[in-house]
Design goal:
Blueprint (H helix, E strand, L loop, with lengths): L1 H23 L13 E5 L11 H14 L1 H10 L5 H22 L1 E5 H25 L2 H29 L2
Parallel strand pairs: 1-2
Length: 169
């Protein structure tokens, strides 16, 4: 049963990673030609263009934070014996890699704030899973709970993406 649960968590994690790349690199676009050709980099944390407005920036920070929470949860599920600093490096490294790819591919603005907020979101995911496992009292039951929740979310997201794809034709 443990192996079956781990297999499901692995599949859901791979789906999450694919969606993460599509959201961050391809900005939910179905065609590469629809992407903005932007190559910029901001190395000053929480420094924003004042013309866009504070509400936009707050929303972007919150979205960047929330999108990495599942990564922390998945890492806790899939790598229970791995040290915290290794999980931290995986989260920060993934965020840094995606920001670097945005710059290399000229498909977005690379921003240190995104790396910081993504990493903080992943750390929250690590904490949420740890607290839930302690409350439930069993990692196997916690894995089952999070796998069911992730499965439901994955089905809903894939269904919505299917509707978007169908509507764009």
């Amino acid at each position: 049963m443990k192996r079956k649960s781990n297999c499901l968590a692995t599949i859901l994690f791979l789906i999450y990673l694919a969606l993460l790349v599509w959201i961050i690199l391809f900005k939910l676009q179905f065609s590469i030609s629809d992407l903005d050709k932007v190559r910029s980099i901001n190395l000053i944390p929480f420094h924003y263009d004042k013309e866009v407005g504070a509400a936009f920036h707050l929303t972007e920070v919150l979205e960047n934070f929330l999108i990495f929470v599942p990564m922390g949860i998945y890492l806790q599920m899939l790598l229970p014996r791995t040290k915290l600093y290794v999980k931290f490096m995986l989260i920060a490294g993934t965020s840094f890699l995606l920001e670097t790819m945005q710059y290399i591919l000229a498909v977005g603005r690379s921003d240190i704030t995104d790396v910081l907020t993504n990493t903080a979101g992943g750390l929250l995911g690590l904490a949420v899973y740890s607290m839930a496992a302690r409350l439930i009292g069993n990692r196997i039951k916690a894995n089952r709970l999070f796998s069911i929740l992730a499965g439901i979310v994955s089905v809903v997201v894939i269904g919505l993406l299917g509707l978007l794809l169908f509507a764009n034709r």
